[in-house]
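Researcher: Please translate sequence to structure tokens.
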Amino acid sequence: MKRFCVILIFIIIIIEPVLSASFILSGKVVDETQTPIELASIVCKSQGRIVNSNLKGEFTMHLKSEDSVIVRISMIGYQTKRLSLKHPKGKITVTIVMPSMNSLGEIFVTEKHRQYDQIQNLDTKDLKSMPSTNGNTIEEMIQSQAGVSTHNELSTQYNVRGGNFDENSVYINNIEVYRPFLIHSGQQEGLSVINPDMVEKIGFSTGGFEAKYSDKMSSALDITYKKPTESEAKIQASLIGASCYIGLAAKKISWINGIRYKTSKCLLGSLDTKGEYDPRFFDYQSYLSYQPNKRWTIDFLGNVSTNSYNFTPKDRETDFGTLQNIKKFKVYFDGSEKDLFNTYFGALSVTRNISINTKISFLSSAFYTKEQETYDIQSQYWLTESEATENLGIGTYMEHARNYIKTNVESFKIILDHISKAHHIISGLTYKIEHVKENSNEYEMRDSSGYSIPHTGSNLQMTYSLKCLNYLNSSRVEAFIQDTYKFKSFGGTFYSLNYGVRYSRWSYNSESLFSPRLSLTIIPEKYENLTLRFATGLYYQSPFFKEIRDTTTTNGITVATLNSKIKSQRSIHFVIGLDYRFKINDRAYKFTAETYYKALSNLIPYNVDNMRIVYYGNNQSSGHAMGFDLKLYGEFVPETDSWISFSLMNTKEKINGKSIPLPTDQRYAFNFYFTDYFPGTIRWKMSLKMSYADGLPFGAPHKGLEDNNFRAPAYKRADIGMSYRLVNNENKDKKSIFRNIWLGVDCLNLLDINNVSSYYWITDVTSKQYAVPNYLTGRQINAKLQFEF
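Model: Translation complete:
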């Protein structure tokens, strides 16, 4: 025992100086918003030690104790920090806050975090002052991005790189959402399913997106609703509607509620067709998050939407043509239209944090919509030349519809999320149950100069007649797994590799799909302001109810049946892009360029009737879409955000041996959003939004795509908004109940340009058809008042 004690004392005497000569440095690297910075380099050059922070920004380093130890923390895109430690001992824990390279005082440029994948983050603060025609500012912001186009300011629909609106997936808090089926015009569209007051983050991809997003061919919009840390509220009213937002926060609960009401009566009053417009759109949404402890989180998202569109037309007068050949179109109407779109949506999510790096989520959701479109409208029209008294066409046009549809979709989803060193692995499994019931009956009758068209000589037929009674009962299984691997080379170049695969199977056509996807981001060590991106993948457009409606015409009557042999449309994406950050006059800018090619096959051809997409119901064409997109984002004026986007595109589709452009072939598009303050004050703010986009191909209704021999004129529009900050209390002085009060006025369609949404086709006795343009809204003034608490 004595010998053992002597040896133990001897060992302690020898080891103690060694232990006292070392220490452990651990901590976390975050940015100004306390967001973890992954793969930051922590270097002690004097001792030859280097470690990287993990995906949660945490690190641990063993160092020798000296009189002074200097540690350098660096990361591409952030200002380097130096940590000086005097006589360090034991275990030292620190939090390193690294300012962004884009910091300008207390003003930060949006998208200051690097884009490591094909999802770009859009800033929600630009929504507050953006002039808006329909109040759906999220979609209006998306429509101004590079590679995105729209041709109707009354609609939330947008086309991405040659795809139609059905090819865009939309997620809210990891739940895929749907839109009504029967809406066919911008006038009928009411409030978007996305409430901009409740949005915290916007992620958007125009192609090459990850495996976790559903089977769509064109784009992915990922919306995250906010969880406020303190109570807040906002009330807004304008000539086109009103909204109220309330956010409540407690220690374990956050609850946000949004109510919106919209009426576009004043906007529709500027259309050529005069009458009694009575559109009423109402929406209520609620998002509740409860976290009883650090292990569990329970979320609920609910939405109730009622959109009604009632219209009694009276008369219309439209002038069109050229300066040398002006035509006048007069119509007197009889009848009315009554449409109703009721939508209910609910989602419940339960998340269990198994460990610090692993969590599992169980999600269930239900979507139900009940829609009706009913109208009986008769029109008596005259088509004349302004320089002559002779009538080019006189006749009657009768339109009838009794269309009803009910849809409900239930889904159950499991998501597993795991972080391991430089890997971030996400996997998911989804089961969906779909029920659709359709009962449609519609027809069109034309009578020109006393002759019903078409006239066979022995009987009279309708120009168009459709009858269908269809039921769809099906289920889907979807699964995905993906990994994001972030690492640095020995030379210091940063890499972010995302790879994954998606699987789906639909019971209706017994089709199984495998969709591998890959993207790579590179940030060179010597060029920290440059980001290179490459993405590719196999994407499918999994069919749903509209795509499988196959029509056949017998004796002038068209019948729509469901095609159980339909296959998914396929698109192979190749995307190459770069981001370059730079400064001019101490103001930060970001330039983005992307070029892409999409090989399309198994396409289901379709016609676009105003805002309604009518599919052929068969896989019978192939094609391609290619082009490039440019975007410049930054502070054109100090302390404001603006951007310019420009796109060029070429699309082709081969159908029945003939090569034609896709119906969404927009050859060029230019979008500009500019903000500025009045000289000498920051209370007055101006926002200008401009669009110039090529017109889309079109042809006579109820004809094949091969007859789309015309192209609509370019879409040109400018909206300007003025906002005055009556009260500025961002620091929340307890003496004032208001945080902000904004007064605003928007001039919509500033230049009063007559854009065309669609065409009204009329026929004379010789069966010659004339395309009379349906013009969109004219110049309008909208006043706004907003209170923030």
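Researcher: Any highlights?
Model: The chain has three helices and 48 strands.
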